[in-house]
Amino acid sequence: MSNYMITSDTTCDLPESYLKENNIDIIPLYYNLDDVVYGDEINLDPKDFYNKMRNGSMPSTMACNPDAADKIFRKILEKGHDILHIAFSSALSSSYNTVAVVGKELAEEFPDRKIIVIDSKSASMGEGLVVYKAIENRNNNMTIEDNAKWIEENLLNFCHQFTVNDLFHLHRGGRVSKATAIIGTMINVKPVLHVNDEGALVSLNNVRGRKKAINTLAENMGKNIDGFNNDVIMISHGDCYDEAFTLGEKLKELYGVKEVMINYVCPTVGAHSGPGTIALFFMGKQR
Description:
Blueprint: E1 4-9, H1 16-21, E2 26-27, E3 30-33, E4 36-38, H2 46-54, E5 60-62, H3 66-78, E6 82-87, H4 95-109, E7 115-119, H5 124-139, H6 144-154, E8 158-163, H7 167-172, H8 178-186, E9 189-195, E10 201-208, H9 210-222, E11 232-237, H10 241-255, E12 259-264, H11 267-273, E13 278-283
Parallel strand pairs: 1-2, 1-6, 6-7, 11-12
Antiparallel strand pairs: 3-4, 3-5, 8-9, 8-13, 9-10, 11-13
């Protein structure tokens, strides 16, 4: 195996078991909820986080701490490994810029080591899917330079489709107007959104009803996957596992997907999308 480590941050939303199995160090991002800062040594169970949101608590989010990034990178470099870091979209957080600065400073201190920091232009398990593909490439003995090049060349084929259950969380994040949130809630409108080529959250279309919104995720995937390997896809959720599982089983039946990796939307992203979020990630022709 090539002598480099792949790292990411909290927002990749990959299961803890996968991170441990593949020795992926995670740089924490932070959030404040009920006057407590979580994200590193203090963590809140995702189910408890979403229950607090349902009960009216409104979290605020923060980027990563440069000292935390320095500590994680330094540990890897001192062991003689190079680093390929896959960061949360720069259109959604300053974390990429923070880590890039840390990487540049450490490169001067460790001139014999390579540190490559990639803006994934992705979020949640879309970012996780980038990490997954990078691990596959490394396991196939791809060099760190070729792996980084492959990721950059294929970034816009990592597709994100998602829907939310409560428009008011999107309003708080500036994604929809207050009027849209009020009227949409009254007539049961559910938006279908995606992460665009710049890595920002944007609306694709609105549909009536939760079931139709989730079905639209599946339909959109089917229109976009010709010629791409989607043996493994990912679904993240805002504490609605049963709906995520049902969607995954449907995609296996429709498109021959072999494995669906399912996990929570982390609080950093979930603070803006809210309970009931369903997000689907796959490889396709265009975002």
